Amino acid sequence: MAVFCLTYASPLGAGGCGIGRAAIGWLVATLFADHPLLHRIQANTRFDNDAMRRALESNKFVLEGRLRQTWRSADWSRYDTVDPAAQNRRVLL
Known about the structure:
alpha+beta, 4-stranded antiparallel sheet
């Protein structure tokens, strides 16, 4: 199993323009097209990151888990993490 970590942030003032949604859509389509045996792509984000959750959901990511108090902020506060994933339906057949 290969695991890759990708982190991104929208440019200041660009939030809500669909850049993240488009980037996630391109990445998912490209990975599933170029790697036909790839079964799933999993993401994680803070539970209260509504923009990221919407961007993932619009790209067919489905919530698969919530981890309690696993995300540390700069002030050492703890937040829950959610783990949505997208599956390559062609591999499931």
